[in-house]
Amino acid sequence: MLLRILTAVITATCFLSRLGGETSSPVPAPPQITVTFWNVQWFPGRRPNASRTEENRQVRAVHADLGQLKSDIVALEEVRDYEHASLAVKPLAGFKVDVCSSFPPREGQNEAQQVAITSRLQSVSAWSELWKPAGAIVPPRGFAFAAYQLAPRQLLLVYAVHLKSNRGEIHEDIRIREESMQQLLAHMKAMNDAYGKLGALNWIVGGDFNTAPDELRFATEKTIADLRADGFQWCWQGIPFKSRITVPADLRYPSASFDHIFFRGATLVKAWVAGTSSQSSDHRAVNAVFKL
Questions:
Q1: Which helix or strand (DSSP H or E) is residue 151 part of?
Q2: For the chain, what are the domain ranges?
Q3: Fold of the 30-291 domain
Q4: Which of 48, 51, 137, 147 has the smallest CB count inside 10 Å?
């Protein structure tokens, strides 16, 4: 991570130098930004080793759903790779992939679940990182990060995450998610030190957390509590559970609200769960509009 931090510092310094002559000029009012985070269930195909027919069916459904969201940034979880992240947002005018992870497959699997950040904005820098082992705790996957310059001396820093699932012993799953969050908070501190040289920072963190702050079985979990203690606000605050279900019930599991967006240094205008199709994913897309 040290190399990434040094790169960020150099990038920030270069941009600060370039913007030095603009500091006395009026800064335009911050724009509104619409963001989407979506677990697209092994895109494309909705399962490993999907048939071409299954892949094409999901691609059509995802394209139809994304086309209705009018987002500026779309972060995807469970996308197969960079090429397929590009395919997912192909119909969106001006969109490109700013970063897509290349996490290795889990033991016993042939395919991996990646996270990607795509947008119509100009990124300053973007990359992904694996979570690091912490003794016997080995968190799966990692995070994607992108920094965007919105105006002179104003940046937006975006993180996309897909934390450990609940397919295992619950106390172990919780401890793994908590370790991932501690690593994320450490990275945020480093990025604050690096990009803070540019001026005001707005932060958005979203994705599939596989936990919820108000669900009884996670009452002792600190994953989200630690993020909120660092000054992040929850987009679902005050919204009743039935209005923020992101994983509808099926024959095996009850309804869940596992997909979240957190923010700092921004004003939430609205947040909602999109009515994305079950042909697209078992998760619904979560969306928010921010004034930055």
A1: strand 142-151
A2: 30-291
A3: Deoxyribonuclease I; Chain A (3.60.10)
A4: 51
